[in-house]
Amino acid sequence: MKRKYLASLVLGMIVVLGTLCATIEIAHAQEVDENGEPIAEKKESPTSLLKTVGQYALGIVGVGMLLISVTKTFGGLSYPAARLSLINLLRTNPNQAEMVARGMEGTFGEAIGAAMKGAAMVGTPDPVMIASTTTPTYDGIGSAVAQRWGALLTKGKLYLAAACGGFVLGLSGDSFPVVSLLLALLAVACFLRVFLYKGEVESTIVRARHELIPEVDRAMSSGRYQFPPPKQ
Fold first, then answer.
1. Are the CB atoms for 115 and 135 separated by under 8 Å?
2. Which of 4, 62, 154, 171 could in theory staple to 163 by disulfide, Cβ–Cβ 3.0 to 4.6 A?
3. pTM exceeds 0.85 for this model
4. Structural domain containing residue 213
């Protein structure tokens, strides 16, 4: 709900500001002098074309790269539903739970899958051996997942700066840069999406460590997990 509310708020701001800016631009185009005669258009400076191209290029590149980052958040991350599904599988079919978890790339599930794979390589249902493998593996992969999202957000700051820079460059022109403003607002919305998703991923990694790893240990030491045959 919070994501939908934020997206609706940002979209509303873009529509309102875009309408306002378009109105200002039209009013500016219809300016007249004291005698009611249209004011002659100002001659464009030699650098105006470069500024126009530059502001659009910065905005489009910044938004485009941020949209690529946003696509990595598609599908959402419903921790309660994923947690319930994995717990049910761990208690009924741990091997299938491992496959499902390993397919949840970029989330806590990736760390769960890696922890189960590492414990499977031990080749024994001994609870002590399993616990000594799953927790360190989970911590290592979980940290790596969080770091990947952190690196993506760091790049996102550069893309956001590019889009906002295009808007600032447009402000140096003769007319208000409506398109550059909309691109900058879209860049802000994309950046917020990645930022919020990153925080959610990090939070669920911490929660899953305490709520799911014990379930993994019990599932793999109870005899329900089918260990791969030992290498000859």
1. yes
2. 62
3. no
4. 54-69+77-232
